[in-house]
User: Fold this.
Amino acid sequence: MPSGAGKSAIYQLAAIALGGPAVVVSPLLSLQRDQADHLRSHGLTAVAVNANAPESRRAVAYDLLRDGQAGFVFLAPEQLARDDVRDVLAEAPPEPAAAVEGDADPAAEADEWSGDAGSGVQYFSQQAVSRLADRAGFQLPADMAAPERLIVVQEAMASGDPRAEQLYDTIGSYLGYSIGHYADFYHLRHVLVMGRVTSGTGGERILLRAREVLAAEFPSVASRTRVRMPDEKDKRHGQAIAAASLPSIDEIAGSHTARSDSR
Assistant:
Protein backbone atom coordinates (compact mmCIF):
# COMPACT_ATOMS: atom_id res chain seq x y z
CA MET A 1 0.00 0.00 0.00
CA PRO A 2 1.33 3.48 -0.79
CA SER A 3 2.16 6.03 1.87
CA GLY A 4 -0.95 7.60 3.36
CA ALA A 5 -3.27 4.79 2.22
CA GLY A 6 -4.09 3.68 5.75
CA LYS A 7 -1.66 0.89 6.63
CA SER A 8 -1.32 2.16 10.20
CA ALA A 9 -5.08 2.23 10.66
CA ILE A 10 -5.17 -1.56 10.22
CA TYR A 11 -3.40 -2.25 13.52
CA GLN A 12 -4.61 0.91 15.28
CA LEU A 13 -8.31 0.20 14.80
CA ALA A 14 -7.88 -3.46 15.65
CA ALA A 15 -6.04 -2.63 18.88
CA ILE A 16 -8.62 -0.05 19.95
CA ALA A 17 -11.53 -2.37 19.16
CA LEU A 18 -10.03 -5.48 20.75
CA GLY A 19 -8.29 -3.81 23.67
CA GLY A 20 -4.51 -4.03 23.12
CA PRO A 21 -1.71 -4.10 23.73
CA ALA A 22 -0.93 -4.18 20.03
CA VAL A 23 2.62 -5.34 19.28
CA VAL A 24 4.05 -3.62 16.20
CA VAL A 25 7.35 -5.02 14.91
CA SER A 26 9.37 -2.72 12.66
CA PRO A 27 13.12 -2.45 11.90
CA LEU A 28 12.75 1.27 11.16
CA LEU A 29 13.34 3.21 14.37
CA SER A 30 12.29 6.50 12.80
CA LEU A 31 8.99 4.91 11.79
CA GLN A 32 8.51 3.62 15.33
CA ARG A 33 9.10 7.09 16.71
CA ASP A 34 6.73 8.78 14.24
CA GLN A 35 3.96 6.21 14.81
CA ALA A 36 4.27 6.37 18.59
CA ASP A 37 4.28 10.18 18.59
CA HIS A 38 1.16 10.21 16.41
CA LEU A 39 -0.71 7.88 18.77
CA ARG A 40 0.33 9.93 21.81
CA SER A 41 -0.90 13.10 20.13
CA HIS A 42 -4.36 11.50 20.08
CA GLY A 43 -4.27 10.58 23.77
CA LEU A 44 -3.22 6.93 23.35
CA THR A 45 -0.37 5.32 25.27
CA ALA A 46 2.42 3.96 23.09
CA VAL A 47 5.90 2.74 24.04
CA ALA A 48 8.89 1.80 21.90
CA VAL A 49 11.51 -0.79 22.84
CA ASN A 50 14.66 -1.04 20.76
CA ALA A 51 18.43 -1.16 21.10
CA ASN A 52 18.64 2.63 21.31
CA ALA A 53 16.28 2.84 24.28
CA PRO A 54 18.11 3.44 27.59
CA GLU A 55 17.37 1.08 30.46
CA SER A 56 15.33 3.75 32.24
CA ARG A 57 12.98 4.10 29.26
CA ARG A 58 12.80 0.32 28.85
CA ALA A 59 11.85 0.00 32.54
CA VAL A 60 9.03 2.55 32.12
CA ALA A 61 7.76 0.67 29.06
CA TYR A 62 7.80 -2.63 30.95
CA ASP A 63 5.89 -1.13 33.88
CA LEU A 64 3.20 0.30 31.59
CA LEU A 65 2.80 -3.06 29.87
CA ARG A 66 2.55 -4.99 33.12
CA ASP A 67 -0.03 -2.53 34.46
CA GLY A 68 -2.14 -2.82 31.32
CA GLN A 69 -1.65 0.86 30.50
CA ALA A 70 0.18 0.55 27.17
CA GLY A 71 -2.15 0.19 24.22
CA PHE A 72 0.68 -0.05 21.68
CA VAL A 73 4.26 -1.33 21.89
CA PHE A 74 6.72 -0.86 19.03
CA LEU A 75 9.53 -3.41 18.87
CA ALA A 76 12.59 -3.80 16.69
CA PRO A 77 12.71 -7.41 15.37
CA GLU A 78 15.71 -8.42 17.49
CA GLN A 79 13.82 -7.52 20.66
CA LEU A 80 11.59 -10.56 20.22
CA ALA A 81 14.67 -12.75 20.84
CA ARG A 82 15.06 -11.30 24.34
CA ASP A 83 13.61 -13.35 27.18
CA ASP A 84 12.71 -10.27 29.22
CA VAL A 85 10.69 -8.78 26.34
CA ARG A 86 8.78 -12.01 25.73
CA ASP A 87 8.12 -12.39 29.47
CA VAL A 88 6.71 -8.87 29.79
CA LEU A 89 4.49 -9.34 26.75
CA ALA A 90 3.19 -12.61 28.19
CA GLU A 91 2.41 -10.89 31.52
CA ALA A 92 0.71 -7.86 29.98
CA PRO A 93 -3.04 -7.85 30.67
CA PRO A 94 -5.38 -6.57 27.96
CA GLU A 95 -6.07 -2.87 27.96
CA PRO A 96 -9.58 -2.10 29.21
CA ALA A 97 -12.09 -2.10 26.35
CA ALA A 98 -15.82 -1.93 25.79
CA ALA A 99 -16.01 -5.71 25.37
CA VAL A 100 -14.12 -6.69 28.51
CA GLU A 101 -15.27 -9.87 30.19
CA GLY A 102 -17.78 -9.44 32.96
CA ASP A 103 -18.53 -13.09 33.67
CA ALA A 104 -16.11 -16.02 33.39
CA ASP A 105 -18.92 -18.59 33.28
CA PRO A 106 -18.87 -20.29 29.84
CA ALA A 107 -22.67 -20.43 30.02
CA ALA A 108 -22.95 -16.66 30.57
CA GLU A 109 -25.00 -14.40 28.32
CA ALA A 110 -23.39 -13.93 24.90
CA ASP A 111 -22.82 -10.62 23.15
CA GLU A 112 -25.11 -10.32 20.13
CA TRP A 113 -22.34 -8.84 17.96
CA SER A 114 -19.19 -10.75 18.88
CA GLY A 115 -20.80 -13.90 20.23
CA ASP A 116 -18.44 -13.75 23.24
CA ALA A 117 -19.89 -15.19 26.43
CA GLY A 118 -19.73 -13.00 29.52
CA SER A 119 -19.02 -9.77 27.66
CA GLY A 120 -19.36 -6.73 29.90
CA VAL A 121 -21.91 -5.17 27.56
CA GLN A 122 -24.44 -7.72 28.86
CA TYR A 123 -23.92 -6.59 32.45
CA PHE A 124 -23.53 -2.82 32.43
CA SER A 125 -25.21 -1.36 29.35
CA GLN A 126 -28.78 -0.93 28.13
CA GLN A 127 -28.59 -4.55 26.93
CA ALA A 128 -28.22 -5.51 30.60
CA VAL A 129 -31.27 -3.43 31.53
CA SER A 130 -33.26 -4.98 28.69
CA ARG A 131 -32.31 -8.52 29.74
CA LEU A 132 -32.96 -7.93 33.45
CA ALA A 133 -36.26 -6.11 32.89
CA ASP A 134 -38.06 -9.35 32.05
CA ARG A 135 -36.62 -11.11 35.10
CA ALA A 136 -37.58 -8.19 37.35
CA GLY A 137 -41.21 -8.49 36.29
CA PHE A 138 -41.53 -5.79 33.65
CA GLN A 139 -43.91 -7.03 30.96
CA LEU A 140 -42.52 -5.23 27.94
CA PRO A 141 -43.21 -6.04 24.28
CA ALA A 142 -40.70 -8.53 22.90
CA ASP A 143 -39.99 -6.24 19.95
CA MET A 144 -39.33 -3.15 22.09
CA ALA A 145 -35.80 -1.85 21.44
CA ALA A 146 -33.26 -1.75 24.26
CA PRO A 147 -33.12 2.10 24.39
CA GLU A 148 -36.90 2.24 24.81
CA ARG A 149 -36.81 -0.44 27.51
CA LEU A 150 -34.19 1.58 29.35
CA ILE A 151 -36.47 4.64 29.34
CA VAL A 152 -39.36 2.60 30.80
CA VAL A 153 -37.13 1.26 33.58
CA GLN A 154 -35.69 4.72 34.32
CA GLU A 155 -39.19 6.17 34.62
CA ALA A 156 -40.16 3.31 36.94
CA MET A 157 -37.09 3.97 39.05
CA ALA A 158 -37.97 7.64 39.34
CA SER A 159 -41.40 6.67 40.69
CA GLY A 160 -39.92 4.31 43.28
CA ASP A 161 -40.89 1.05 41.58
CA PRO A 162 -39.29 -1.83 43.58
CA ARG A 163 -38.79 -3.83 40.37
CA ALA A 164 -36.52 -1.10 39.03
CA GLU A 165 -34.71 -0.85 42.34
CA GLN A 166 -34.00 -4.58 42.24
CA LEU A 167 -32.76 -4.31 38.66
CA TYR A 168 -30.33 -1.49 39.45
CA ASP A 169 -29.16 -3.30 42.58
CA THR A 170 -28.28 -6.26 40.38
CA ILE A 171 -26.23 -4.11 38.01
CA GLY A 172 -24.52 -2.54 41.01
CA SER A 173 -23.58 -6.00 42.26
CA TYR A 174 -22.17 -6.86 38.84
CA LEU A 175 -20.11 -3.68 38.97
CA GLY A 176 -18.83 -4.22 42.49
CA TYR A 177 -17.65 -7.76 41.84
CA SER A 178 -16.12 -6.79 38.49
CA ILE A 179 -14.10 -3.98 40.06
CA GLY A 180 -12.98 -6.28 42.84
CA HIS A 181 -11.74 -8.96 40.48
CA TYR A 182 -10.20 -6.58 37.96
CA ALA A 183 -8.18 -5.15 40.83
CA ASP A 184 -6.24 -8.43 40.70
CA PHE A 185 -4.80 -7.23 37.40
CA TYR A 186 -4.94 -3.42 37.60
CA HIS A 187 -3.89 -1.16 40.47
CA LEU A 188 -7.17 0.72 40.56
CA ARG A 189 -7.37 4.00 42.41
CA HIS A 190 -10.17 5.83 40.59
CA VAL A 191 -13.15 4.27 38.82
CA LEU A 192 -15.43 6.64 36.90
CA VAL A 193 -18.86 5.12 36.22
CA MET A 194 -20.81 6.61 33.33
CA GLY A 195 -23.19 5.88 30.46
CA ARG A 196 -26.90 6.23 29.79
CA VAL A 197 -27.76 3.41 32.22
CA THR A 198 -26.45 5.55 35.08
CA SER A 199 -28.74 8.51 34.31
CA GLY A 200 -31.19 9.44 37.03
CA THR A 201 -31.61 7.87 40.45
CA GLY A 202 -30.80 4.43 39.05
CA GLY A 203 -27.18 5.46 38.67
CA GLU A 204 -27.00 6.41 42.34
CA ARG A 205 -28.45 3.00 43.23
CA ILE A 206 -25.82 1.24 41.08
CA LEU A 207 -23.03 3.18 42.73
CA LEU A 208 -24.31 2.54 46.25
CA ARG A 209 -24.64 -1.19 45.68
CA ALA A 210 -21.21 -1.45 44.05
CA ARG A 211 -19.62 0.27 47.04
CA GLU A 212 -21.45 -2.08 49.42
CA VAL A 213 -20.14 -5.14 47.56
CA LEU A 214 -16.59 -3.79 47.56
CA ALA A 215 -16.70 -2.98 51.28
CA ALA A 216 -18.05 -6.42 52.17
CA GLU A 217 -16.15 -8.64 49.73
CA PHE A 218 -13.05 -6.66 48.74
CA PRO A 219 -12.22 -4.35 51.68
CA SER A 220 -8.62 -3.72 50.59
CA VAL A 221 -9.83 -2.63 47.14
CA ALA A 222 -12.57 -0.50 48.67
CA SER A 223 -10.07 1.26 50.93
CA ARG A 224 -7.84 2.41 48.07
CA THR A 225 -10.31 2.83 45.20
CA ARG A 226 -12.61 5.77 44.70
CA VAL A 227 -15.71 4.81 42.71
CA ARG A 228 -17.74 7.80 41.55
CA MET A 229 -19.87 9.30 38.79
CA PRO A 230 -19.66 12.57 36.86
CA ASP A 231 -22.61 14.96 36.85
CA GLU A 232 -25.87 14.11 35.11
CA LYS A 233 -24.93 15.88 31.88
CA ASP A 234 -21.48 14.34 31.50
CA LYS A 235 -22.36 10.78 32.53
CA ARG A 236 -24.23 10.31 29.25
CA HIS A 237 -21.06 10.81 27.23
CA GLY A 238 -19.13 7.84 28.58
CA GLN A 239 -17.04 7.04 25.53
CA ALA A 240 -15.91 10.63 25.02
CA ILE A 241 -15.01 11.04 28.70
CA ALA A 242 -13.18 7.72 28.70
CA ALA A 243 -11.07 8.85 25.76
CA ALA A 244 -10.31 12.17 27.43
CA SER A 245 -9.36 10.32 30.64
CA LEU A 246 -6.54 8.31 29.09
CA PRO A 247 -3.15 8.76 30.78
CA SER A 248 -1.52 12.08 29.96
CA ILE A 249 1.90 12.03 28.33
CA ASP A 250 4.89 13.85 29.77
CA GLU A 251 8.22 14.37 28.07
CA ILE A 252 11.09 13.53 30.40
CA ALA A 253 14.72 13.78 29.32
CA GLY A 254 13.81 13.45 25.68
CA SER A 255 11.50 10.48 26.17
CA HIS A 256 7.77 10.13 26.65
CA THR A 257 6.15 8.42 29.58
CA ALA A 258 2.59 8.19 30.77
CA ARG A 259 1.32 9.37 34.14
CA SER A 260 -0.92 6.43 34.87
CA ASP A 261 -0.74 5.92 38.63
CA SER A 262 -3.91 7.91 39.25
CA ARG A 263 -6.03 6.50 36.46
About this structure: The chain has two domains: 7-97+246-259, 121-229. The chain is about 50% helix and 10% strand.
